[in-house]
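Predict the 3D structure for this chain.
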Amino acid sequence: MSRLPIPEGLQRVRARLDAACAASGRDPASVGLIAVSKTRPLDDVLAAARAGQRLFGENYAQELRDKAAALAEQSNPPPVAWHFIGHLQRNKVRYVVNTAALIHTVDSLRLAGEIAKRAEHPQAILAQVNVGDEASKSGVAVDEALALCEQLDGLEGVALRGLMTIPPAVADPADAAVHFRTLAELAAEGRRRGLPLTELSMGMSSDFEVAIAHGATLVRVGTAIFGPRG
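Done. Predicted structure below.
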């Protein structure tokens, strides 16, 4: 795969996002595009930000800390919001809390408690759900997710915003629909119970159109914007 200039890659992804929203009868403004910048140099982030990208996702706690600090030191830094989208260990919470606008990967009350302890203001979080019940992935089980959300919603120091998932890998993006539907239905049931599950973080470069069709409000796209790594 050849690498497009980042502004062109970003333009193509936005066109795909707009088309997916049109097909689903949704306003494109209802879907936030997160540019997944893990392992990418700061110059790549700046190129995307200068092309109008505002949300960036990082998978590694110390990389988020360092990249956010380096961007802030730039002359006239572009206004961006950082999202943490990787597995978060409790001993690395300090690198993420108060820097990330949203932490997508909270899967236990213990992790949320560590976040709350270090938060200078209520830290926005999503509960990560393991929709495919995969041993290799983090996330709370589907049948335990709303119980966890009820605990998170009552915890001072965090602000629950919704759910996140990384579905099992599939050859055909359409096959991910069942997993996205599961997350959307779970959120809807949570809202019926009074839980603030308005955000759905699901969908990546290969399948975000399918995720949008099932209600995604945040999609996480890396390769389609920045090109292949290495």
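DSSP finds eight helices and nine strands in the chain.
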